[in-house]
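Progress note, sequence design subtask.
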């Protein structure tokens, strides 16, 4: 049996079932399978593998992760991406974005220690964009970086202005892009990765997963030097937060976290106790009412999940 240090290394760039597409440091791609029936390997993982037969391998080990994100639907929560440097949250002037979904994404990123970039698309829709800016004002005030783009309009040379703007910002590191239906996420992916459709077809063929690959997370390099990468997770619903203890939730909400030290009781839930610094900040207008409602909702959800 080979020692871990003697095994080949690889990056997981896609997966379907127990089939993972792994890229070696030299750029070679092969299918790897985990040992046993269960696997918690996700896109972005660095693995150690051994060759089996043909152009396939077996996963023998998982390198330590820097971070891990979870997705959630109405049935379950499951990990789906690891070792990210940045989360790009795309919202649009139209349709109106869900502040609850935005908050979940930000909390997941804060807890995992991942940088966040919020992009507001369709700013050419002047009135709707003004309303969206107003709704995003509390997040800018919390220190989140917000950039504004119009993914469709093009510059004088025919290239979308947003392509240059985003390509420079995302040139290094691994960025997970998240955007609800209608925000322009597919347009963004195709702008930054023009060969995305062809790569997806290749991945689908390699994994023998056909059309089902369209619902799975996948990794695209943004440049030949492989300095920057875009991770797309089509069909994404919302981030899973069940790994967060409800008492820890305020730590990952910067506007609430700023007032935690002023509560009378160290174990304050910020829901009903006297002398609560968070609710005092809410009354002063230092915390937006919509943000406090999101806290109440998530606190109730996480408290239920612990039973």
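Output:
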């Amino acid at each position: 049996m080979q020692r871990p240090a003697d095994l080949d290394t690889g990056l997981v760039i896609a997966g379907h079932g127990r089939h993972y597409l792994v890229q070696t440091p030299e750029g070679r791609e092969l299918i790897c399978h985990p040992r046993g029936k269960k696997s918690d390997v996700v896109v972005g993982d660095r693995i150690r593998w051994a060759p089996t037969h043909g152009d396939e391998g077996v996963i023998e080990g998982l390198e330590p992760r820097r971070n891990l994100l979870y997705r959630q639907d109405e049935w379950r929560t499951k990990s789906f991406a690891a070792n990210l440097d940045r989360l790009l949250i795309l919202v649009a002037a139209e349709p109106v974005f869900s502040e609850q979904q935005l908050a979940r994404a930000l909390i997941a990123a804060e807890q995992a220690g991942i940088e966040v970039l919020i992009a507001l698309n369709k700013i050419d829709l002047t009135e709707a964009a003004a309303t969206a800016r107003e709704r995003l004002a509390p997040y800018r005030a919390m220190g989140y970086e917000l950039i504004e783009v119009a993914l469709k309009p093009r510059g004088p040379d025919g290239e979308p202005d947003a392509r240059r703007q985003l390509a420079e910002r995302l040139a290094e590191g691994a960025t997970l892009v998240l955007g609800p239906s209608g925000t322009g996420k597919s347009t963004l992916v195709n702008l930054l990765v023009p060969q995305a459709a062809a790569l997806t077809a290749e991945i689908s063929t390699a994994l023998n997963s056909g059309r089902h690959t369209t619902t799975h997370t996948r990794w695209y390099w943004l440049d030949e030097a492989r300095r920057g990468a875009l991770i797309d997770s089509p069909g994404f619903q919302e981030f899973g937060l069940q790994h967060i203890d409800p008492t820890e939730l305020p730590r990952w909400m910067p506007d609430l976290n700023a007032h935690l030290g002023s509560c009378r009781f160290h174990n304050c839930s910020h829901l009903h106790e006297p002398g609560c610094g968070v609710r005092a900040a809410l009354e002063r207008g230092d915390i937006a009412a919509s943000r406090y409602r999101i806290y109440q909702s998530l606190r109730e959800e996480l408290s239920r999940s612990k039973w």
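The chain has eight helices and 14 strands. Work on this subtask will continue into the next period as scheduled.
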